[in-house]
Structures are given as structure tokens and as C-alpha cells.
Amino acid sequence: MKVLVATKETQGERKSDFFWTEEGEYVYFGFECCNTESCGCSWSFSGMKSRKGTTTAKVIDASITKEMLVIALRKSHAKAYPSMDEKTLDEGSVEDAERLLKLASLFEVGAVLRRGAGKVHEGVIA
Fold first, then answer.
1. Which residues, 6+ apart, have CB-to-CB distance to 21 below 8 Å?
2. DSSP, res 57
3. How does strand 53-54 pair with strand 57-61?
4. By C-alpha distance, which of 2, 40, 5 is closest to 22?
5. Is 92 helix (H, G, I), strand (E, B) or coil?
6. What is the rounded distance in angstroms from the CA atom of residue 9 to the CA atom of residue 93?
7. Which of these, 10, 28, 37, 74, could form a disulfide with 93 (CB 3.0-4.6 Å)?
8. Can you tell me the distance from the alpha carbon of 59 to that of 21, in angstroms, rounded to the nearest whole number?
9. Percent of the chain scored above 70 by pLDDT?
10. Is the pLDDT of residue 121 over 80?
11. Nearest-angstrom CA–CA distance, 44 and 120
């Protein structure tokens, strides 16, 4: 199944690039603050294990099921938001998994993705 992982590929093509997560770590859309001009949360992905950011993610074909992805997201969310109730954790993890799988399905394996202007793009975004 196609999923998104953190990658160092194409890092440095933009001045705003950063890679603080682990290479190959599954990523998701993390928390976004309201300071979109100086904070990278609105143009980055978050690692599920490290919960650190990267501006680049790669589409891979992984031997993971949707259920496994939901579990990984739920574990990450539970650590990031320890006061979140069980129902919200469960529902949010399923919604996030579905969103990520749908996004990954739109691109070819090997595509390096970036976020910007409220969208996800392949390649460099000015």
C-alpha cells in the first residue's frame, strides 16, 4: 500500500527546508499553529515516531495495512496529546489514516512531496 515517509531527498532546494525526523519514518499532518509565516508547521509533515518535522515526504509502497497505520497514528497522537479522550483519538486516527492513504494514492511511488499554499505538491514549491 502507498504511504508517506520522511525523506532527505531534495532537502535544501528551498531555503525553508528542514529535516528533524528520521529517514523512512511514517509521516502525517501534525498540529498547525496560527503563525504560518515564521513557523514551519504549516509547510511540513510530522514523524509518527519522533513527532518531529520535515519539509519533504516520499511515497513508498509498504507492507502495511490501513489498520496498522491507524494503530501507529493512534500511538503517536496519544503521546503528543496525552489529555485527549479515547473516542477523539480513535476517530482522529482513522480520519488521518484515510486522508494520508488517499493522498499517497494520487502520486507515483518514489514521488517526493512538499506542502505549501494549503496543498501538497510533488517537487519544489517556490
1. 6, 27, 45, 46, 47, 50, 52, 53, 54
2. E
3. unpaired
4. 5
5. helix
6. 27
7. 74
8. 16
9. 84
10. no
11. 10
